[in-house]
Design a protein that fits this description.
Blueprint lengths: L11 E7 L5 E7 L1 H10 L3 E4 L4 E4 L8 E8 L5 E8 L32
Parallel strand pairs: 1-6
Antiparallel strand pairs: 1-2, 3-4, 5-6
Pathway: Amino-acid biosynthesis; L-histidine biosynthesis; L-histidine from 5-phospho-alpha-D-ribose 1-diphosphate: step 2/9; Amino-acid biosynthesis; L-histidine biosynthesis; L-histidine from 5-phospho-alpha-D-ribose 1-diphosphate: step 3/9
EC number: 3.5.4.19
Subunit structure: Homodimer.
Amino acid sequence: MLDPKWDANGLITGVVTDTASGELLMVAHLNAEALKLTLETGEAHFWSRSRGRLWKKGETSGNVLRVVEARIDCDQDALWLKVEPAGPACHTGARSCFYRRIKSDGSLSPEPPSGSA
């Protein structure tokens, strides 16, 4: 049975990948309500730590994440959501939130890689 191991703040980490390409799109947090809504609606919901509130991914941009499959790890303390994105996953407009590469000198590549929005 599903029995998530919430952290001290009542959250669990969610890793989100594109079901078609396998690309890592984003990492976010879910509380019990976000997980319930995600499973019930088939669209990704998260808990925003910075805003201190529940949010549906794409609620303002329209770039919703349709959940194709949800998995939980062996310890039930992390989720993996395989999704079909309706647009860029990152609020910057990049396809993935992980568009910056770390260079050997510690600097970051400033531009999203080709193929990003």
